[in-house]
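Question:
Now give any protein.
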Amino acid sequence: MSDLSQAQPQAPSSAQPDVRAATQASFETGTAPPAEGSGERNHGHSSGQEIALTPMQQGLLYESAAAGRPWVNLEQIVVHLDAEAPDPRALRRAWQQVCARHPVLRSAVLWQGRPLPVLQVADVDAATDQIRVETQDWQGLEAEDQAARLEQFLSEDRNRGCALEQAVSWRVMLARLGANRSVMVWTIHHVLVDGRSMAVVLEDVFAALIGGELPAATAPVTGFEAFSPAVAQVSEQPTSQAFFRAHLDGFETPNQIARLTGSDDRPAVAAPDAAGHGRKQILRRQLPSELRRALVQRAGGVATENDAGPATLANMIHAAWGLLVARWSGRESAVFGVTRSGRYLLEGCGRTVGCLINTVPLHLHLSGATTVDGLLSALRRDAVALRPHEQASLADMRRWCGLPGSVPLFDTMVMFERDSLNARMRSLGGKDDSPWTQRRVELREEGAMPLTLAVYGDEQPLLMLEYDPEVLPASQVAHMLDHLCQLLQSLATAPADMALRDLEMLPEAEATQLLQQGRPDPALAQVLAREMAAAPPCMATRLEATAARMPEAPALQMAPDGAVLSHADLQARADRLAVVLQARGATAGDIIAICLPRSPEFIIAMLAVLKVGAAFLPVDPTYPAAVIAHMLQDSGTRLGIGGPDYGTVSGPDIGSDKGKSAHGHDAALTPEGVVWVAPDAGSELSEQPDRPLRPAPDPGRLAYVIYTSGSTGKPKGVRVPMRALLAHASAITAAFELQSNDRMLQFASLSFDVAIEEVLPSLLAGACVVLRAPDMIGAPGLFLDRVAALELTVLNLPTAFWHVLCDVMVDSGRSLPPSVRLVIVGGEQVNPQSLARWQQLVPGVRWLNGYGPTETTITCTLHDPGLDQGRPVKAHEDVPIGRPTAHARAYVLAADGSLAPAGVAGDLWIGGPAVSDGYIGRPEDTAKAFRPDPFAPQNTGGGHHTSCPAARIYRTGDRAAWRGDGTLAFLGRRDRQVKLRGFRIDLRHVEQVLERAYPQLQALVAVHGKDSPAAQLCCWVRGLREAGEAGTEERAGDTRPDLAALQQVVQRDLPAHMRPALVPVAAFPRTAGGKIDMAALPAPTQASSGLRLRRNGGAALDTSAPPSPLAQQLMAMMADLLGQPDLGVDDSFYDRGGHSLLAMRLIGRIEAELGQRLSLAALHLTPSPRALADALSPGDGDGDSPETPEGHTLPDHLVIIQDGGARAPLFGVHVLGRNEEFYRPLAAALGPDQPVYGLSIGLLDSRTPTGVRATAKLYLEEIQTHYPSGVVHLAAVSLGSYFAFELARQLLAAGRDLGLVALFDAEGPAGRSRVQGRARLGAHLGLLRRMGPAYLGHVARHRIETLRNSFERRRLEWTGGGGALSIEALIAANQQSVERYTPEPLATPLTVFRAGDDLFDSPEGLRQGLGWAPVAAAGFELIEVPGSHLSILQEPNVQDMARHMARIMQRPDPHESGIKGQA
């Protein structure tokens, strides 16, 4: 299997296991070796009767035999006979009798070349005669060695699989352990029997063994031949369709549990479908009997509906698993598979032998407000309602619900049995003297699902969590199992009305740790508490106190050369304006609009409003008139400063000169009664008091209102109280370490809350605020000049502007002026590559990444990566948003409101004094977004006064996760998950795939033409500048990325539904507020992604012509297999969700229904119904006929891996890996201009050639037909090297020009000389030190693989190799062919690549080119590359190999080897 062949170290004694693994990975189908026999007697079933497989059986078959993974879904029933040693002959007779009774046990599974697989029942006598009982004698071994021998046998036995095409594919082994002790192993495929059938068969076998004859059945039993047709009828019932439509309502994609990897423990961004299919591992946990009794008792007390009966232990297990899956996947619902017995379908199925089970989706709705008893009652109701429909197929469910055929309904499943097979067997007879009390039964099995929970409800329930370690690491699965057990404990004692959010999943220590991470640094929190308690709760009073301490210190200046106002002057002018406001009727609690351009008058107006106890509302005078009118009317404003006509026409960032506004304000849009006050009105009133009347301080009084965008299209006003403003100012002053000598740049638009952060904390600290000049935003170079001239010390910049500034500094080689000590960025995600370059340019300046929604009073988390302290930036990791500031708390919560585990993505909620009071006039929106803080301590502290309302938390709408270093990873907006053509797509995931492949890139993904039939996923990309690259400021950011290279990443790392159209841009357009202007992005150009058929002149298909009848027939086949009735005639089978298993079914149907044999290569090249129909149709004689000699339209054995430019192609020969995985990283490393193709024999059957010369001849014909001229490069892995060698010889004989002939770590015909003696021992020790204990496992696997290979080769020698070929048989046959093949010297140089991690090659082996020297007539070059046998073809090692290969292939004469005939 492919996963075993990836990155495995070289076997110390031979390359054989790696050769076998590599060869096996190149094939995608096959069966296992034949079993030793079969037999049965006729009991009403005629020989040859065929029974259709149920959909569940088909799935079990395709997951294992058809996918080339014979160990999957294999059942091993181990019966320990601690007081018995039966006679093997008697045991064989017993099995023969049982086989005769149960037709399934004498049924072959036929599927190759058929549209649908069937069971074919064999003749009883013929089948029973083939039954054998293999015997082994282990009596001379110690008990420990006997146990080890059994484990070894089970491992080898599992790897053999079952030859399902034989009537008796199962087998029995009996091992003698002592005079009165033995162990029996029954091995059978799950497609034939389920767990309850196993119990029936075992009971019958031992009854026949003891009694000599099988007792007669005591009750009628429904046969499987009646059960299978009844299953087919379920999908035809309208009630089943209605049930699953309702049950799966709202389902889009399965709950995906992200793999937690890396030092930061954040969810990994892995390419979908890249997890592979590794061998499973199992974690076990046994629950105490007390917990089982408590769970059963708790379930029995649940009130259920519609006479559903009491809830059960199974319902409790399903509830716990659903909560676990939902919380670990960040969803408010859970869908997982549950195994149903299937025995409710027909009467008399209690003792039916066969595979009657089915796995169906269970959909749980888990909102935080749902109660425990509400969930359990719903589970019981659904479990009972499901019975009539439990045999419906998953394909039908997808079709009924309108889901794409490639979307799985679940990624995890639960199998619950009331008791284990052992407990069930031991309960037979019900007496202490029953023989079964002396027998122990264990079941060994291995499924295909990445995560499966099996629960056996014995007195002490056993939990077995089977997982794929290549999908989820063991540590994470163990963590999940701990959480499951905690949930079961919580369920056992949960009150009926407890909300699910309160149901504990995390152990107390883990929950405490997460809460501590979400609180600010204790020292900062204490300082904030002291300041809030000591100073009056009034911003105006605190600012006046600062001015009184330093009246002449500079406070405010307009760049570039405006007059400087001192703190005393600023307060005096604000006092005069405040007096005017009071004279116009302003009172405490009012909302006063400030509609002014950026100017000192704006800041003066802010202070004046605060002095009268009112709240200020910033209004940008350049906003559309309708927006201004909405803000004024919605907020209830009756008094304003400035006005819509008080500004200039210079654009969104305007100066202080008065003039007409740009939008031509319509007075009719201004709410009636609003009075506008001129900002300089106070200077005209000489008889008014110098200072306004100050209302009593009130921390709960409104301080300001900021309008943000709303979901309805109209902005909504956020109410920020004084307590939040004061807490923020104190927290930011401490975080920024603001001092009186600081000069803070006021950069943000004054209508944004970040402007408040730039102004008020600075003034409180006695610093000077410098208002940005309009020209500073458009020219980064001029910006740097202004910063230097103004001697600014603190810059708070939008992330977008900072990125551009970084590009300019890289281009120009400039750095920040020496006056700058601190830079803060915020508003968007930071590109880590930009940050790494920034550190090189500005190594000694402190840098902070800020985050905070308007609803949580501006910045509420900060991340300090320690750039000024020299901490290196991890350029491949996203930049976190840090930890809470002193006035905030941060929680990452699951969708139901419980704490999300560390590293798991969840909703980011903010609490603490930072939380605002909600939205003006929108109680429903406020109730949705703001909730009581369930984690707040009784004494809220941190600035909460006794008069303040209870602590609340705000749902930001952003997703986050706690990293391993205790900081928050920002995972993007929740609303950045879109649905397109039935697929749920995380836009940030697509961006990350591209940005991580090309760190010098910024990507922005969105849906272009959303909600239209032409909606398209698009990715706009811009390049970043390299540090030290020459250029000018004008070129900053205008580095257009290589679209061809990016397209390779898209094709390689993203599934079809997530592949965007790529659109290069020089820069992202921005709105006035600095956000990306999505409407201004260029539309994607339409480009065809289909492959053109290689016909005369390479003419493309006419897609405008009506489809032919054959195309329509093929379209119907594809649509049926994919479950997508809307599939079009020009849609790609693979783009619409097709994969290798579905491709195999399609090929089988085409062969069965159309009588035409199709190769996988041809389907890859013509994946649409129209193209495939054209390929299968004979030429019409009009000049558009195929060019191949035999009349085939397309190649049978050529697979496109990378269809590059005009360079000479590289052909990977024979051993390609699953989905060509051995060559895809190499192709990417060679670059998009290098064409790379694969040559493979494809599907396995008796017609598949295995001889070296015969196979090479097929490949030669393929090349001659489709690439008749030009230089050809060849490459091969392991065993494939002999096929490449012979192909090179035949190409030369045909007069073709050969370039590179690369052999990857392959043993040559002279043998690969290895070190011996002490040197060999030293190599073993070296690998043991390098790999640790895993090396011992590798050695053991190597020995097992050797035994398996030896067995298969002996079997081929005995049988002659006729009939269908399994993967095992094909590998062995190829090895035999290589041994029979005598290579002749080759008159072209060889390039042999050696794995540098192999410590066993001797000096002689290196001199002999790993054994290729005797046949390298033109010499060879031996090149050592980093990695092991197969990891040399994987990142990052493949980059080294690609450089060597490119060097050779790009020579004018590739035959000019650098080193000929030596290492």
